[in-house]
Sequence to fold (368 residues):
Amino acid sequence: MSESTSTPSPGTGPRIREALSRLPAYVPGKPASAPPGITAYKLSSNENPYPPLPSVLAVVQEAAGQINRYPDMAVGELTATLADALGVPAECLATGTGSVGVLGQVIQACCDPGDEVIYAWRSFEAYPIVTTLAGAVPVQVPLDAEHRHRLDAMADAITDRTRVILVCTPNNPTGTVVHDDELRAFLARVPSDVLVVIDEAYLEFVQDAAAPDALAIWREHPNVMVLRTFSKAYGLAGLRVGYAVAHPDVAVALRKTAVPFGVNSLAQVAAVASLGAVDELQERVDALVKERGRVVDGLRDQGWDLSETEANFVWFDLAEQSGEFAAACEAAGLMVRQYGSDGVRVTIGEPEANDRLVQVCARWRAEH
Ligand SMILES: *Cc1c(COP(=O)(O)O)cnc(C)c1O
Fold:
């Protein structure tokens, strides 16, 4: 007996794939915490600051009574509702556990070990993780001086190992969009067997008339798919549901690589209810876009040189000063997202939080 309960000798554990040692860690946004006496705001995860709509909360509460049952594996009602709302055939839709979940399905569906995935950098930090996890090779193409995608350089980076190209518009964390004409010129250079994913997590916040009509582009290009989420504008980040609009062969592959029953029952009913409340949700998005304008104008008045943001966040290109700036925000009760010595991303939040950001920035300008 004593033998079987003894500690195993080192070096005999299960072998873990080598690729995992190359994975960058996903850094979650810091939770709100503040010095005593001041309200803290979480501006570190691009979340919607509004609480769930009462109508959405009601269906979630009702559905909670049946969580002893598995969810609808086909995600039927949500798929049908989305197909109707978007004007696309249901066979062109695939769902997943957030759009990050769908992205993992994309890479698994398209990449064998050693295949290449091209994306801009900096961009969404999940890209290197899902790529590396699948044994694929990340090919990162630096953004330009205005923090925009260099689509020409991305096209130049295509090799015969390229399987997927990720285009994040608006780009997280810089907020810039690609333009419709640029994207079309880029697509003309991409071989038809390479899948181009247009990640539109922040689509609802976009006002730039030159931004792409991704669904129109998808209709015209058999190798394009569009990735969307209920996490940001729809305010359902905690429920984990996103989707792809893809051509049928790709959509079939995404369903094959999905975690079975991955989209849970509460997420399914909440997403359906949200699609039924788009006008109410749009009012909130409009208010956030207005707040974004107020913050950006305030900061430009202070002399900040900001890149254009079309999302629900602002990018501070502070290089080596990033840590100091993030610490100044946190001392004022604002949790922000620092990206090493690249910059700091701050989510547009409640008006009081935005006011405080403008104040912290004014003080920073005065002191630097
Ligand atoms: C937040 C975000 C997503 C959405 O993630 P979910 O998994 O749907 O919550 C996708 N892409 C980008 C670029 C994001 O910033």
User: Anything to note?
Assistant: DSSP finds twelve helices and twelve strands in the chain.
